[in-house]
Amino acid sequence: MSEPGKEESNGPSSQEDKDQLVNITLDEKTLARTTPDVEHERKVAIFDLLEDNYFRLANKDEGPYQLHLSIVEGRLLFDIYTQKEEHSGAIILSLSSFRRVVKDYFMVCESYFEAIKTSTPSQIEAIDMGRRGLHNEGSQILKDRLDGKVEIDFPTARRLFTLVCVLHWKG
Q: Over the stretch 69-122, which tens digit does the pLDDT of each residue have?
């Protein structure tokens, strides 16, 4: 029961509340068996995305949104729904612009996970700086490719890029 003079709200209270993702799923058929490190990265990315993100379909005001990510016929599919599970649209991106940065990112990640076990803190930090640089590069590519279709901020692009990498992971 609400306090006198205050209205109860069953939905977003402002435009900011509408311009966000409230649910994210990855296509189970697309996902390969992953390592514990990759599974951890996926869970953290989804948790962080749901905690704080900016996501708005260009020229639409239907949010908040649910997002289902998958790879279909070698393309990245963003299947977007409203919070009420009404289909808002699909965005298909070629994976070719991501291939090099994802490949390099995976190589550096493998080096990073190995370095954690045996290397000095300064060596780990150097590898991590390279890893973050590649991650930023991939995030910017994703943000650029979505431009005109979906408005996202850079932190949201970073977390989405992590999920794109998880979908690419072949183990």
A: 999 988 999 999 999 999 999 999 999 999 999 999 989 988 998 999 999 999
For the segment 116-142, what is each residue's pLDDT rounded down to a tens digit? 999 999 999 999 999 999 999 999 999
Sorted by where each begins, the domain ranges of the chain are 17-168
Distance of CA 101 to CAs 13, 74, 105, Å?
Answer: 39, 16, 6
End-to-end Cα distance, the chain = 51
**From residue 29, how far is each of 25, 26, 75 by CA, in Å?**
12, 9, 14
DSSP-derived 3-state class of residue 72: strand
